[in-house]
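Cast an eye over my tokenised protein here and flag anything odd:

===
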Amino acid sequence: MSTSPSSQPLLTDERHIILTMVRDQQISVDQAERLLIATASHATSAAAALAAHSSPSSGVSAVALTLVEVKATLSLDHGHTWVAADQVELNGHSNDVLTYLIPKGGVDKVQVTARFPAPNKHGQWSHRAFVTKLLLHPAIVRYTFENALGQVTSLDVAFQNPPLAPLPSRDPLTDWFFIDMDHLDDFTRSYAKVTRPPPLNDSTDTDPTLFVLHSCHKNGPTSSYSVTARTVRLWRSQLNHRLQHPIQSTPTELEYLPLLAISEPNKVEWTAGFDSTRSTLVLLRVKLMYENDVAEDSWVLDWPAVPST
């Protein structure tokens, strides 16, 4: 690679220092080869930038520092473990070509961006808030800069955003059953639950609520459905109409009825499970769905604990 005359002093000085470090056994021959290649690759761009910053019109005497590599690592546990970035850019440029000039007696502002592998379906942290909003303590990003002389400098940056508002969770005072599924992309939660019936406002109610089914998709509006004795009889009738074979005299597997009226396509599915005689509601099965993710569980009814039964 040819270099311009203005780049020769910079190139010669850097190579002289590198060879001196090899002679003094401060670095290995392999390390020196990498640094020498880096100085040759960056000499032209370094000299051009140096000339621009050191021109009489600028009034600034600059010292050119040729960066060989910029690295970034991320720690989410106070520095005990670190995750290396798989892509780092300085001022919009990758590690392929980096020239960083520090004006004498001045301060330069640079922008470093780093992309880290992460445990979500996209394989990346979608944005910085994802890291900080799920933590109770600051995250640390360590930037490491290496110049063409083999000198390494590190900078640690800690940051933390306000934590998320508490996501819906099971309330042991009111909830008989609770299932949830978290969505890491936007910090939301889908859930379904079965709650105790509300207090009776009218003692003359001939069909009081036995329990209430609730479902919510990604922190959206909550759908609620009150189940009464009349509701269970309606489900039993629908099951008998749906199934063509007669009631089995010997108890075997449960008979299932999809509850289409309270299900939402690709979001939540409710299913009622009756015993083999189709007389008793045994369980309610619920499935939460989002794209390729599924969470499924069943609530087995304890009829003696259900009010008004």
Summary: Residues 175-199+207-305 form one domain. Residues 283 and 301 are 5 Å apart (CA to CA). The first strand starts at residue 62 and ends at 65. The mean pLDDT is 77.
